[in-house]
Design brief:
The protein is mainly beta. The chain has three helices and 15 strands. The strands form two sheets. Strands 2-3-4-1-12-15-14-13 form an eight-stranded mixed beta sheet, with helices on one face. A hairpin with a 3-residue loop joins strand 13 (178-183) and strand 14 (187-193).
C-alpha cells in the first residue's frame, strides 16, 4: 500500500448548498463540480478537497471529530469554522503550496494507539503514537467513541494512488475487506473498510482527469 496524498474527505450532508456557500465564503475554496449527487469543493482540483454528498438529515458526527486545512497564516482569519451539521473545520499554520489544502482529518477511536497501528496496514505512515502521515497530511486519532450511527457525517476518506489494481491485489492479500471498485470518467477507485468501519478510498486519476 503506497498512497501518495490525502486527496479528499467525503461527507454525507442534508444541506450541501448551504455548507458550500459557507465554505466558499469563509475559506479559499470554490465549487469544482456540482452534480445531482454531490458537490466537490477545493482550492485546487488536484489537491485536498471536500466532497459533499446529498443525504437525509439530521446527520451524526460518528467517527469524525474535525477536518484541518493548512494555510500559511491564520492572521485575520477565524481559526475554527462551524459549517453546520456537526462539521468543524480548523485552520492550521504551515508551509503549503496551496492555501486551504488538507492538513489533517481527526477521527475518534476507543483505543487511538491500537487504531493507529491498524491503519498502518493501509499504507499510512506512523508519525507519532496516534498520528499517521500520508503525503504530508495527517490522520489524527483521538480518544472517544465513534459509535455506530445510522446517519453518519463521514462518508469516506480518499487517498491518491498510482494504481488501483495494485492496491486491490494487496488488499486481498492482506485480508482487508473490499467494499467496491468504481470506474468513473476521470478516476478509478477502490473502496475498503478501515479500522472502526471507517471507509477508505484509494483513488487513481486517469490521464483524462481534467477538473478545474
Amino acid at each position: 500500500m503506497r498512497p501518495r496524498t490525502l486527496d479528499h474527505i467525503a461527507l454525507w450532508v442534508a444541506d450541501r448548498d448551504r455548507i458550500a456557500e459557507l465554505a466558499t465564503g469563509a475559506l479559499g475554496m470554490h465549487v469544482i463540480e456540482r452534480t445531482e449527487r454531490f458537490t466537490l469543493l477545493g482550492a485546487d482540483a488536484r489537491r485536498g478537497k471536500l466532497t459533499l454528498f446529498e443525504a437525509e438529515g439530521p446527520r451524526e458526527r460518528g467517527a469524525l471529530r474535525r477536518i484541518g486545512l493548512r494555510v500559511t497564516s491564520t492572521e485575520g482569519r477565524e481559526p475554527v469554522l462551524d459549517l453546520g451539521e456537526g462539521l468543524e473545520v480548523v485552520l492550521v499554520e504551515g508551509e503549503t503550496d496551496v492555501e486551504f489544502d488538507l492538513d489533517h482529518v481527526a477521527l475518534l477511536a476507543a483505543d487511538p494507539a491500537a487504531a493507529a497501528s491498524a491503519w498502518e496496514a493501509y499504507g499510512l505512515v506512523r508519525a507519532g503514537e496516534t498520528r499517521l502521515e500520508v503525503g504530508g497530511a495527517y490522520l489524527e486519532l483521538h480518544e472517544g467513541s465513534p459509535g455506530a450511527p445510522a446517519r453518519p457525517l463521514l462518508n469516506h476518506i480518499g487517498v491518491l494512488v498510482d494504481s488501483v489494481d495494485e492496491h486491490l491485489e494487496e488488499a486481498e492479500e492482506l485480508g482487508i475487506e473490499v467494499d467496491d471498485v468504481v470506474d468513473a470518467a476521470n478516476t478509478r477507485a477502490l473502496f475498503v473498510w478501515g479500522p472502526d468501519r471507517v471507509k477508505l478510498e484509494y483513488v487513481e486519476h486517469k490521464p483524462s482527469f481534467s477538473l478545474s
